From TrEMBL:
Residues 75-218 form the Peptidase M16 N-terminal domain. GO terms for biological process: proteolysis. It comes from the Bacteria. Residues 278-299 are annotated as: Disordered. Residues 1-24 form the signal peptide. It holds the Pfam family Peptidase_M16_C. GO terms for molecular function: metal ion binding; metallopeptidase activity. Residues 233-418, 716-893 form the Peptidase M16 C-terminal domain. This is Insulinase family protein. Keywords: Hydrolase, Metalloprotease, Protease, Signal, Zinc. The keyword Zinc applies. InterPro entries: Metalloenz_LuxS/M16, Pept_M16_N, Peptidase_M16, Peptidase_M16_C.
Length: 977
């Protein structure tokens, strides 16, 4: 049973006191006419509910054409005026024969290339002109079991909806599978395959081969094989399409702001003529996991693999495998699933408790998953802290054995049940603002797993109906079911040969296990009412209207300021964001390692008398969150909550500033995690970029350097505390509370929490390098990786500025970067087939006066590095000389315009625009022009920006090449660390 949320009108027109442009849209609802009479809609026999007692979600209208094509349509206006179309073909990589490995994915590309409804290369630009961004709104995915084509079309009306359905019908039913188009798409697919290669794919391939040994899934990754792809011909690709792309294998989902009769009629009109050729080919047998010869109930350990990947962290996953069986998706089946989910949560909580208490593993988890209609498996995964993987395995198996041997406590069950109940209640509250795109995805996901769909109300009702079953005995029974199975397989990854053999792994997995109850936690839940107060409550000294949607600014005597904005179009959803201090600008030159570890450990180090486990128990029946981010000019806490839990959410954040705890265990765990991760960075171009790019773009500022092993080992919990005590205590605080709030209750909660903080102290000046940007020129800084010899990455970057005075300019620079990105895509991908995902992006930090940049990035073969730099420089030069064409500009303006129209219906859009405005009036001053700055941008303006930033100085070049090729890399200047 898959979630489907009810959706109703949730669009709140803008009523602004500031002279903002009228960017709100009129109602887009398309009424049914006499012509909208679908013949094959079956409200009395919805195909997805056949054979089940799950209550039907009557918001959906289901139909089935005589050809076998099934459809589901639904009215939805979230976001307003958007249409979400999905065409799912029940054919993925598992449907390929040995000579076709990769064809399903190749065909996904070719469907977009040319068809009966699009000329060569016309599809993506066409939808961009309608406001659909490539990759986000227009996309497709290939899995082992299906290929799904997606379109989320903004600003949709009857004409554009109908035409888009017509065009997608032509794309999937009649693509132009010519030799010329094959020649155009094959290099792109091979480039995608190359970019996804390396250690991660090798590990994935070996893992899949082990877990699914003897089944089709073992050797049919959607990315395919180079041999099969390079041997593809026009005839062989057409044969694959003819065999599987048939209406009997298709499901069309259409969600939009229109009467369901209108949507159903569109589907029927444009898909009715699609016919399959010849008899229907049955899907192949995906196979079942089979116990190996000689295995029995006493020793069921089967296939095992030890993967050696230098630099990769140690990890072990073993699985209890059962055959996948198509179930009767009824209410009792889902009740059992919910019992299993609670049982899994109890086991995972214990595994986490053991890790926190000094266990021999960094993390561990249990998950039951039904994979690709091939396996029903329970997977146990952990990462040992050291080379002593056997001790970690004993720890993990001991926790699981205890869960199997003895029932959990009622307190453990109640904590898990409370967390689920909060999540289900929240889903019900959010149901009427569920996005149409997610609703459409839910149907295709349900079809994929061969189950029905249900509303959040149904799920909550079913969950609460089984409250009497949440007993220690029944949860233990569900736990035992998780670990029942006749096939056990495992994969271990190690960084060096000789650490472990398959025989040693088999012995360890087959050894008797001793149950350990150390991880049980029966401590009573903590009550917020028992916690120490932040301080003496203090009401704001001033409350002033911002002039935007009723937003207000609150000023407190202690230096704290707050912005509050109430909107009732997102029921039960409140975002709290706390900005404080100076961010990276307040970190000293020698404190970079503590900033890095702070992102991993600060939240978990506790508050007041509470440690991590206390906080988990405290929040079990609450909707609260605690994310932490370090920005260029501010630190940020953020949590998603609801009005009834708002004061608790504010308390958690305020207490972190007022009474932080310094449990060293989270620090030690974060350091262990960073040490394990560091060695993996140099194994492929992406890893190198993740490790070094920010450091290099900041002209080797040591604060931005990823800490190496020696630096991490030298870091101490005591110094971590000293650094973060200073950073938490100083600088201004802005608290932003946006969403479905009660105004007075919010002000009162702020008064009791942030208003009660001690006076904030000024930021202490620290020794830090001056902000800079690396010098550009024809020579590229060269870094190396130790991975595959055909992988490289290249980047060219130009410095921009920063600061809130440049907000208007930053919006137009985003458009310039998108034009640059489209040209890269057209040049390197569509014409040359040299790269799969070249792109350009811009950054303009608002919290500091500099530090922005625009860069273009590509993954590419090492021999093509000069071609990328030439292409990028040519684009930059031409944009500065001639500017973008009118059509190029429209292809980026319309998606940006439609994004604004969609995003401004949510409170987080306004939060993102107004954050910082409590202290920086520019955020407010430049808000009125946000739509105009995008909508009225001209080619001349973007040309002027290209002249100012892209041609005024040479771009800085970076290339990441295979280590063996570094001495021969073109235009290279080595970079040391």
């Amino acid at each position: 049973m898959t979630f489907i949320a009810r959706a109703a009108g949730a669009f709140l027109p803008l009523v602004l006191l500031l002279p903002l442009p009228a960017i709100a849209q009129e109602s887009c609802f398309v009424q049914a006419s006499a012509a909208d009479q679908p013949q094959y809609a079956r409200p009395d026999d919805p195909w997805i509910y056949r054979g089940t007692d799950i209550p039907e979600d009557e918001n959906w209208l289901f139909g089935e054409l005589p050809t076998g094509l099934r459809y589901a349509v639904r009215q939805n206006d979230v976001p307003p005026c958007q249409m979400s179309l999905r065409v799912r073909i029940d054919a993925g990589s598992l449907h390929e024969n040995d000579a076709e490995r990769g064809y399903a994915h190749l065909l996904e590309h070719m469907v977009f290339r040319e068809s009966s409804t699009f000329g060569p290369g016309e599809a993506i630009p066409h939808f961009q002109r309608l406001g659909a961004s490539f990759g986000f709104d227009t996309n497709a995915t290939t899995s082992p079991t299906a290929t799904t084509f997606k379109l989320d079309l903004p600003n949709a009306n009857r004409t554009t909806m109908d035409d888009s359905v017509r065009r997608f019908a032509g794309m999937v039913a009649a693509p132009t599978l010519s030799s010329a188009n094959l020649a155009a798409d094959l290099p792109i697919v091979l480039a995608e395959r190359r970019e996804s290669a390396g250690a991660q794919r090798r590990v994935a391939d070996q893992t899949t081969a082990t877990f699914f040994a003897g089944q089709r899934l073992a050797e049919r990754s959607p990315i395919g094989t180079a041999e099969a792809l390079e041997a593809a011909t026009q005839e062989s690709v057409r044969a694959f399409h003819r065999r599987w792309y048939r209406p009997e294998n298709a499901v069309v989902v259409l969600v939009g702001d229109a009467d369901p009769q209108v949507l159903a009629a569109m589907v029927e009109r444009h898909f009715a003529d699609w016919r399959g050729e010849g008899p229907l080919t049955p899907a192949p047998d995906f196979g079942d996991p089979q116990a190996p010869a000689g295995a029995d109930g006493e020793n069921p350990v089967g296939e095992l693999t030890v993967i050696v990947e230098p630099g990769q962290p140690r990890g072990l996953t073993y699985a209890i495998m059962r055959p996948w069986v198509e179930v009767v998706d009824n209410l009792e089946y889902n009740r059992q699933n919910l019992l299993g989910s609670v049982a899994t949560a109890v086991v995972n909580r214990r595994l986490e408790n053991r890790a926190r208490a000094g266990g021999s593993y960094l993390f561990a988890g249990v998950q039951r998953d039904k994979i690709s209609r091939s396996v029903d498996g329970t997977f146990v995964t952990f990462a040992p802290l050291t080379e002593d993987w056997e001790a970690a395995l004993v720890d993990v198996r001991g926790v699981i054995a205890d869960a199997l041997a003895s029932p959990p406590s009622q307190a453990e069950i109640d904590q898990a049940v409370a967390s689920f109940d909060v999540a289900f209640v929240d889903s019900v509250e959010q149901s009427r603002i569920q996005a149409g795109s997610l609703l459409a995805d839910d149907i295709t996901n349900a079809v994929d797993i061969r189950e029905a769909v249900a509303s959040p109300e149904t799920f909550l009702e079913v969950f609460r109906s089984i409250a009497p079953r949440f007993t220690p005995e029944q949860v233990q029974d569900a736990t035992r079911e998780l670990f029942q199975g006749e096939v056990i397989r495992g994969v271990m990854m190690v960084p060096a040969p000789g650490e472990v053999t398959e025989a040693e792994l088999r012995t360890a997995l087959s050894a008797p296990v001793v149950a350990s109850d150390d991880a049980r936690d029966n401590t009573a839940a903590v009550n917020f009412a028992d916690l120490p107060a932040i301080g003496e409550p203090a009401a704001p000294t001033a409350v002033q209207p911002l002039g935007v949607l009723g937003a207000e600014r609150l000023t407190f005597a202690n230096g704290v300021r707050a912005l509050i904005l109430g909107r009732d179009n997102e029921p039960g959803r409140v975002t709290v964001r706390v900005r404080f201090g100076d961010g990276m600008a307040g970190v000293a030159a020698d404190e970079g390692v503590y900033a890095e570890l702070g992102e991993l450990a600060l939240v978990n180090s506790g508050i007041g008398p509470l440690g991590q486990n206390d906080l988990d128990r405290l929040a079990a029946d609450l909707k609260v969150g605690f994310d932490f981010d370090i920005g260029e000019g501010a630190f940020t806490f953020q949590g998603l909550t609801r009005q009834e839990d708002l004061e608790e959410q504010l308390y958690l954040f305020a207490a972190k500033l007022a009474m932080p705890s310094w449990d060293p265990a989270p620090f030690e765990r974060a350091r262990a995690s960073a040490l394990i991760a560091y060695e993996s960075y140099g194994r492929d171009p992406n890893g190198v970029l993740n490790r070094d790019l920010e450091w290099l773009l900041h002209d080797r500022d040591p604060r931005y350097a990823t800490a190496d092993a020696a630096t991490l080992r030298a870091a101490t919990p005591e110094q971590f505390r000293a650094v973060w005590e200073r950073l938490l205590a100083q600088g201004p605080v802005e608290v932003d509370v946006f969403g479905d709030i009660d105004r007075q209750a919010t002000i009162d909660a702020l008064s009791r929490t942030f208003g009660a903080l001690a006076d904030r102290t000024p930021v202490t000046a620290v020794a830090a390098p001056d902000a800079g940007f690396p010098a550009g020129g024809p020579d590229a800084t060269t870094l190396t990786h130790s991975g595959d010899p055909d992988q490289a990455a290249a980047l060219i970057a130009w410095p921009l500025g920063g600061g809130s005075e440049g907000i208007v300019q930053s919006r137009k620079l985003d458009l310039l970067a998108q034009v640059f990105s489209n040209r890269l895509l057209d040049g390197l991908r569509e014409r040359a087939g040299a790269a799969y995902t070249p792109f350009a992006t811009s950054s303009w930090p608002l919290d500091r006066p500099d530090g922005g940049y625009l860069f273009a990035l590509v993954q590419i073969e090492p021999s093509l590095l000069p071609a990328f730099f030439d292409e990028a420089e040519e684009i930059a030069s031409d944009l500065a000389t001639n500017g973008p064409t009118a059509d190029e500009l429209e292809r980026v303006i319309e998606p940006a315009r439609q994004y604004l129209l969609r995003a401004q219906t949510g409170h987080t859009f306004w939060l993102n625009q107004l954050q910082g405005a409590a202290f920086d009036t520019n955020r407010l001053v430049y808000l009125p022009s946000i739509f105009r700055d995008v909508d009225e941008a001209t080619p001349a303006e973007l040309q002027a920006l290209a002249q100012r930033y892209l041609s005024a100085r040479p771009g800085w070049r970076l290339q990441v090449v295979p280590a063996a090729a570094s001495t021969a890399a073109p235009a290279a200047a080595a970079a040391g660390r």
